[in-house]
Specification:
Layout lengths: L3 E2 L1 E3 L2 E3 L3 E6 L7 E7 L2 H19 L3 H17 L1 H12 L3 H21 L6 E4 L5 E9 L2 E5 L7 H12 L3 E5 L5 H12 L8 E3 L4 H10 L5 E5 L2 H13 L3 E5 L4 E5 L5 H13 L9 E7 H17 L18 H16 L3 E4 L16 E4 L16 E7 L2 H9 L6 E5 L3 H10 L4 E4 L19 E2 L9 H4 E9 L5
Parallel strand pairs: 1-5, 8-9, 8-11, 9-10, 11-12, 13-14, 13-18, 14-17, 16-17, 18-19
Antiparallel strand pairs: 2-3, 4-5, 6-7, 7-21, 12-20, 15-16
Length: about 475
């Protein structure tokens, strides 16, 4: 009998109106557990309690808040092997990636624990004689966090940690595909010295519980990571209540490989960027913009590398790419393979469902050749272990191709020219730019976000997070006002 895992509602663990079954994508016979689905009444109750708890939490001293966040982060890092194994079991990324994600998520909490002590205001003299000005940031209030399944612990953590750091309450709706990691994190947070109902976990479908959450007038801000259509829907709902919103959405990241690139490095970066996490990353290198002078040699090594990648059960040693997260996602991926071929792209390798010893959602890494940037496979986010090579004749054409997209999250260049690297850094229209590094992989202490359809609202991570999770208050004080 599978264990039923509950929601955290107004400070208490509670069953819901039903439950869903969580299945291991590496082995469909492995049931991770049953997970409760919150109902509307539970959501309303937890929102009411969150508003009360937020006022109490905001009044906690800085060191008391710091201790809470530090304890969360330290426990996550100490349990990275255990929780990373759980993450890989339900999401499908190789075990090393799962462990690394949990450890990095713990670092978000310890980083923001330190930020609890660095919240400094500003002082100024008024333009009016005898008046002083005090400017400081205060909590925005109750924050709704809606996180994705591809980084179920890390993405949630880089939202929850700053929300708590800056004095807010959190109502978290995780993706229903990866509820086990959500419950594990919620249990850690719930054990801390926090007011009842400050942090809530409401699992449920986006079309029901998620929609009700974003439409609620009881929340003050929404932080969302997911698809562009869902992000647009959330923004439309949020504006009805003038709710503050931050959305990280789609991408179509490009890695430009120049004719002076270190060939082996370029191939390594492309393979890791395109197929890490089964291509299920918002920072994945789904377009490889390659200079004609190095194109044929690059393609030969790239295809050989893709064919050599070990695909298998997430828990098996040496596996470089695990399964696709779900049957629905796998079906969508295979549709893009058919689409690319119908557009005239050559499928040089992969892109097929694999039969493995364990029944699961396995797919081989695929490489499209002879593609143009106007093909749908180069315009739409596939979120699949698929990448397209686009041949260009010059650096200028490469840069133009990189920028020719509705998205603008990450981009990268592989070159030995400082002049090219500098020009690319300054002219690539993306929020994140890399030089001789993968497009995937970002640090927790600096801003993260994109342009165009990739992002809406303030940046995430680092000190930039304060812009979203706080509101500014300006106070004027007459000189000589008695204490």
């Amino acid at each position: 009998m599978s264990t039923l895992h509950k929601n955290l509602i107004a400070g208490a663990w509670a069953a819901g109106e039903g439950e869903i079954e969580n299945v291991n994508p590496s082995d469909l016979s492995d049931i991770v557990g049953l997970f409760a689905q919150a109902d509307a009444a539970q959501l309303d109750a937890t929102l009411d309690q969150a508003r009360v708890a937020q006022v109490e939490w905001a009044a906690y001293g800085m060191e008391r808040k710091q201790a809470v966040l530090m304890a969360i982060g330290n426990e996550m890092m100490a349990r990275a092997e255990e929780l990373g194994t759980l993450l890989s079991r339900e999401e499908g990324k190789p075990l090393a990636e799962g462990k690394g994600e949990v450890y990095r998520a713990g670092q978000f909490f310890t980083y923001y624990a330190a930020e609890c002590l660095r919240q400094l205001g500003e002082n100024a003299d008024s333009v009016r004689p005898g008046v002083e000005v005090d400017v400081r940031r205060e909590p925005v209030g109750v924050v709704a966090i809606i996180s994705p399944w591809n980084f179920p612990t890390a993405t949630a953590s880089w939202k929850i940690a700053p929300a708590l750091c800056y004095g807010n309450a959190v109502v978290w709706k995780p993706a229903n595909v990866t509820p086990a990691s959500a419950v594990a994190l919620a249990e850690i947070i719930d054990r801390q010295d926090i007011p009842k109902g400050l942090f809530s976990l409401v699992m449920g479908a986006g079309r029901t519980i998620g929609q009700r959450l974003v439409e609620s007038s009881k929340i003050n801000a929404i932080s969302f990571t997911g698809s562009v259509p869902v992000g647009r829907g959330i923004a439309t709902a949020a504006v009805q209540n003038f709710t503050k919103i931050q959305a990280e959405m789609g991408s179509k990241n490009a890695l430009a490989v120049m004719d002076d690139a270190d060939l082996d490095l370029a191939v390594t970066l492309a393979l890791g960027g395109a197929f890490g996490g089964s291509g299920q990353k918002c920072t994945a290198s789904s377009r490889l913009v390659v200079h004609a002078g190095i194109h044929d040699a690059f393609v030969e090594k790239l295809v050989a590398g893709a064919k050599a990648m070990k695909v298998g059960h997430a828990m098996e040693a040496g596996v470089q790419m695990g399964p696709i997260v779900s049957a629905e996602q796998l079906a969508e991926n295979l549709k893009y393979v058919e689409l690319g071929q119908s557009e005239g792209a050559e499928l040089a390798c992969g892109g097929v469902r694999l039969d493995m010893p364990h029944q699961g959602y396995y797919m081989s890494p695929g490489v499209f050749l002879n593609t143009t940037n106007d093909m749908r496979i180069n315009r739409e986010e596939m979120f699949a272990p698929l990448t397209s090579v686009i041949k260009v004749g010059s650096y200028d054409e490469a840069l133009a191709t990189v920028n020719d997209t509705n998205f603008g999250l990450t981009s990268g260049i592989v070159t030995q020219s400082l002049a090219r690297a500098t020009h690319f850094r300054r002219n690539a229209r993306t929020g994140v730019v890399t030089v001789n590094l993968p497009t995937a992989g970002t640090d927790y202490h600096v801003p993260f976000g994109g342009r165009g359809d990739s992002s809406y609202g303030p940046r995430e991570q680092g000190k930039a997070a304060a812009e979203f999770y706080t509101t500014v208050k300006t106070a004027y004080i007459a000189a000589g006002t008695p204490l």
